[in-house]
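Example record for the data management plan.
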Amino acid sequence: MNTAYSHIINRPHHVSRKHPHMSNYGRAAQFAAFKALDGFEEEIAESARYVECRQPLTEAELAALDAAFCRLLELEQPRITVTYFIPDAQKAGGVYVQYTGYFRFLDRSTQRMKFVQGREIPLDAVAAVQFTEEE
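Corresponding structural encoding:
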């Protein structure tokens, strides 16, 4: 074998008598300060976070929602479960959530549903209303 490194290829690994052997953890720690992609982990976590697309309501769902709103105005503080969409502040989409509580009234000036417990839900975010208990 006649290469540039043939004189060292079969020699034993050098072990220093002055400096102790550095662990892999210590060796990696030397380069941690020089991380080229600062904030990369946070970006990956944010892009992996699941959000849903808002689904447009069908004609049948709109009719059912309209009937539910009319029925809400007839009953006195019915217990209902509302499914509504909350848009995500960081990226396109959002999440559908459900809230169960005692309905108080529809505030037409702010276009919000108000509940006895203090929760307010925008009317344009509502996807479904279910009556969980008849009063």
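Summary line stored alongside the record: The CA atoms of residues 108 and 129 lie 18 Å apart.
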